[in-house]
Amino acid sequence: MSRFSGENLVCARGGRTVFAKLGFDLAPGQALILLGPNGSGKSSLLRVMAGLIRPIQGRLLWDGEPVADDPQAHGGRLHYVGHHDAVKPVLTVAETLAFWAGLHGGATVGERIARALDGFGLRRLADVPGRMLSAGQKRRLNLARLLAAPAPLWLLDEPSVALDRASVKALEGEIAAHRAQGGMVVVSTHADIGLEGARELLLDRFAVEHWP
After folding, report:
1. Nearest C-alpha neighbor of 30 from the set 188, 174, 196
2. Count of alpha carbons within 13 Å of 155, Cβ hemisphere only?
3. Angle at 169 between CA 127 and CA 117, to 5 degrees
4. Which listed residue, 61, 107, 122, 162, has the most CB atoms within 10 A of its CB?
5. DSSP alpha helix (H) spans, 39-164
6. d(CA 123, CA 92)
7. Strand 65-66 to 57-62 pairing
8. Which parts of the chain register pLDDT below 70?
9. Are residues 91 and 101 in contact, defined by beta-carbon separation less than 8 angstroms?
10. What digits encode the pLDDT tens for the residues 96-135?
11. Cα gap 113→102, rounded to integer Å
């Protein structure tokens, strides 16, 4: 089974070192919650994990092999859900999910689209274009791609923003199901999201002023 880890990671943004000497390790079925005040580097760490930012030191490993050796393969085994919802205004909800599902191909595309629509309560919105969706509906659609195009690693940055309580419960259920199948999840959140048995990573412990 796959493991995802980081060793001695150092990240800088805008000329400022955000965190240093940071490490983590995730096994199948595990969840990691990123905690810390604004500016401590939670979003930056998620972007490093996703390969969107290169650390200035340290390395990411997948099954012990450096992620940097094959960044394309790493991109294909993860979903990164950031602050901005990737919803095109002219595409309907179903068309958006079809696009994501099509990236993975296979005979189960239709089944995965249906699963995504039902998983986040989007069935009645299937034919609605993105420009007509509310903020909460766009967020649910963005999260639904987790189901439309399966990947073992989910990187979620404040995923509960704009969600009502019922939608948060749906998200919690999908995360639990993903973990039960051996998936891994990293979440940055200020909200109370139920992640049974999740470990916590306190980002302010890796602030530069804490190191000589």
Report:
1. 196
2. 22
3. 20
4. 122
5. 42-49, 71-76, 93-104, 109-119, 135-148
6. 12
7. antiparallel
8. 1, 105-107, 209-212
9. no
10. 999 999 877 665 889 999 999 999 999 999 999 999 999 9
11. 10
Residue 41 near residue 19 (C-beta atoms within 8 A): yes
Q: Which amino acid appears at position 65 of this protein?
A: E
Question: What contacts 161, CB < 8 A, 6 or more positions away?
Answer: 83, 139, 191
- Contacts of residue 118, defined as CB under 8 A and 6 or more positions apart, other chains included, come to none
pLDDT of residue 107: 59
What CA–CA distance (Å, rounded) separates 74 from 62? 8
Q: What is the pLDDT of residue 102?
A: 86
Token duo for residue 54? 């290169």
CA dist list (Å): 87 to 82, 97, 203 = 12, 10, 30
